[in-house]
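Students often ask what a 'structure token' actually looks like in practice. Rather than answer in the abstract, let us consider KEOPS complex subunit Pcc1, a protein of 76 residues. Its sequence is given first.
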Amino acid sequence: MIFMKIDFEMTYDSKEKIIDSLKVDDIDDGLIIDTKFDNEQIKVNIKSNSVGSLKNILDDFFVNYELAENIVNLKK
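Now compare that with the structural description of the same chain:
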């Protein structure tokens, strides 16, 4: 069995209200999903044990991000 560690980080422009709605608690077994808002950008740091987990996390993240963005825009 091959064991891998994945550390994925990305940064892009966003809004603080959207980022606050995407916070995820750290989960057992080494999975870490950390989102921070700084200087009008979101920083996402994901630590996982598999590429499949990373893909699922990113898929869910962007679906939830789009939903949060739509909700914030509805309130305007």
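One point worth highlighting: The chain has a mean pLDDT of 77. Ask yourself how you might have guessed this from the sequence alone, and why that guess would often be unreliable.
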